[in-house]
Amino acid sequence: MSSPRPIQKLSEDFRTAVNLSTSPGAVSTSPNASYINQARPRSYSMAKPAKALKPFSTGDMKILLLENVNETAIEIFNKQGYQVEFHKSSLPEEELIEKIKDVHAIGIRSKTKLTANVLRHAKNLVVIGCFCIGTNQVDLEYAAKSGVAVFNSPFSNSRSVAELVIAEIITLSRQLGDRSIEMHSGVWNKVSARCWEIRGKTLGIVGYGHIGAQLSVLAEAFGMHVIYYDVMMIMALGTAQQVPTLNDLLNQSDFVTLHVPETPETKDLMSTPQFAAMKDGAYLINASRGTVVDIQALVDALKLGKLAGAALDVYPNEPAKNGPLFNDELNSWASELRSLRNVILTPHIGGSTEEAQSAIGVEVGTALTRYINEGISTGAVNFPEVALRSLDLDQADAVRVLYIHQNVPGVLKTVNNVLAEHNIEKQFSDSRGDVAYLMADISHVNVDDIKSLYQQLEQTTYKIATRLLY
Ligand SMILES: NC(=O)c1ccc[n+]([C@@H]2O[C@H](COP(=O)([O-])OP(=O)(O)OC[C@H]3O[C@@H](n4cnc5c(N)ncnc54)[C@H](O)[C@@H]3O)[C@@H](O)[C@H]2O)c1
Ligand SMILES: O=C(O)CC[C@@H](O)C(=O)O
User: Is the confidence metric ipTM above 0.90 for this complex?
Assistant: First the structure.
């Protein structure tokens, strides 16, 4: 194994990988058309140095980082001069509420629940970073309506999850977990009964997105036949085949692996009828979200011998920190599940590799910095995606207006009346559901006028949040 690379190098590699400029405002995983059309030519050419913007009225940027967010992100924030408070685990709700009152940004992973009840205390909050793929732990709609943009890392840990699943397929089919536990307790148990090669077996992938598709390619390299079920029509990779229903997948697969998001539709997607539809002696793998499997029903199917084994990485309730906490108090079936043979249990580590965590730190850290410093929301998961090219260094009297508002008719007329006292250099606005976001660069602004400009915008009827950068 090579030692971890210096952070600067990682950051450069990431930028090269996504093929964008070295401007901190330029990293994107899903550039929308407006971003490409408006921001690209100038930021790519790097013809003129960009003006570094500072916020009006926000004071020092305070960032709360929970759940051991990677040091690559901390380094990015420190470099910006933000005040960073770092915690290794998530926080109990009351403590979280106390801390969130004060901060402008928060970085979390999958454990911290940013519910409406928590977010309504976050009076200064501008942006949330989910340093992971899943965003189900955040009330995205409430955040958007409060003017808080949410960013995640859509695929930086996909490969790590896919590799874990490959390992689990082999581990289950060879009963490696049981043999290892036996040897650790001094028992030599050399058996071949019900141990199989994976070559020629059918892998059924439920959810053929970033992880499912990556896994499909790896599994075929091992000689597996791959079928998949997805609510969308998705192009097959290799010789994989999409099947029309979940039941079609279940009754053909030797291994069923789940890669769907947590949604109301995926709750208990796998329960008693679905286990009954699986082939006798098949295996189930879940590294998506704990709510997707009815675990009591899985325990029953395993006890009956209907399934030959299972691997679980995620659970409906997961401990907030490391320790001997996976017990019946947390999940009523925990000790029953722990006692079963050929069941691999891992503590939500699908994306927990050095490579994935470093890359996620850089990606989400950069997205947050870009949004805080320049207002660019490209890649936000809950928010209109808006970008403007940077202001030039010689535009000393220019101000960037960031105005989040309710998406109702007539707002822009009011706002442009306020802005029209100055020269509008460029502006761009977009909406998503009930929320709209306007970015405008205006020039010929006297520094003494900024306060009045801010107050006028703050007083407009449908305003959600205003930020001025100058
Ligand atoms: N264990 C871990 O550490 C870990 C790491 C990363 C991601 N995850 C979880 O894995 C999930 C999948 O990740 P991804 O990056 O592949 O997501 P993705 O969004 O790229 O793909 C999800 C796929 O599921 C499909 N889908 C949605 N609802 C469905 C349904 N009801 N039935 C069938 N298909 C459905 C979507 O159309 C999409 O193709 C994430 O949402 C996250 O919760 C877990
Ligand atoms: O790192 C985590 O806590 C979550 C990992 C994974 O579930 C994700 O959603 O990316």
Answer: yes
